[in-house]
Design brief:
4-stranded antiparallel beta sheet; elongated; single chain; 7-stranded mixed beta sheet; about 120 residues; about 0% helix; mainly beta
């Protein structure tokens, strides 16, 4: 079992910045891909950013150039730096990871979610 604990959400003004973090703990053999997703009321959960264990990143056009995902494998932690925030970025942000257990099974895990609100 793997637990993901998120922190860093809050309220910021348009154009401001915010940093999120997500730390994994539990029975972990190896964490593979990690990522961030977000969900607004009335909308489906959407991809924000992903990062492989080797550091390869992927972003949708909606956040490309403004958001940066990174990870520290020694701490089992993934980060999201958000710059030039817009009201459209307002959502609950969830972290996700794919973890290989000691028994050789890979599962997907989700954080509890953290609210990000950008005022106009």
């Amino acid at each position: 079992q793997v637990q993901l604990v998120e922190s860093g959400g809050g309220l910021v003004q348009t154009g401001g910045s915010l940093s999120l973090s997500c730390a994994a703990s539990g029975s972990i053999f190896r964490i593979n891909d990690m990522g961030w997703y977000r969900q607004s009321p009335g909308k489906q959960r959407e991809l924000v950013a992903t990062i492989t264990r080797g550091g390869r990143t992927n972003y949708p056009d909606s956040v490309k150039g403004r958001f940066t995902i990174s990870r520290d494998n020694t701490k089992n932690t993934v980060y999201l730096r958000m710059n030039s925030l817009k009201p459209e970025d307002t959502a609950v942000y969830y972290c996700n990871c794919r973890a290989l257990s000691q028994l050789g099974y890979e599962y997907g895990y989700w954080g509890q979610g953290t609210q990000v609100t950008v005022s106009s």
